[in-house]
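Annotated sample (chain length 118).
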Amino acid sequence: MNFWETITGSDLTEEWKAFEARAAALPADYRAAWGEIKGHLVPYSDFTGRNLMPILDGVLGLLEEAAADGQSTREVLGDDIAGFCAAVAGGEGAPSFRDRWREQLNKNVARKLGRLGD
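Output written by the structure step:
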């Protein structure tokens, strides 16, 4: 990845189009699940979304394999797609917005308490 791709995100656009092309080849119920998964993973994204690309690639690969094996989406993902996404993103170490806000709040409180003690 060169500087221009980093700044413009053009590498992400190409990768995203490749994901969508792969997802278009899935059966309808898997495409619907893919749409839900993307929506539930957005809170785990960093500013650019680069941290989600390996996660999305892995999940899409799982959906492709399961569809090829003839499994239902419920067998693969369970009943709780949001929980599945939280487990996948958490397993990869992707912090959510809530985690980032909690960390910032803790830093601010610690800083204020440190000043009060002086």
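Annotation: The mean pLDDT is 84.
Annotation: The chain has seven helices and no strands.
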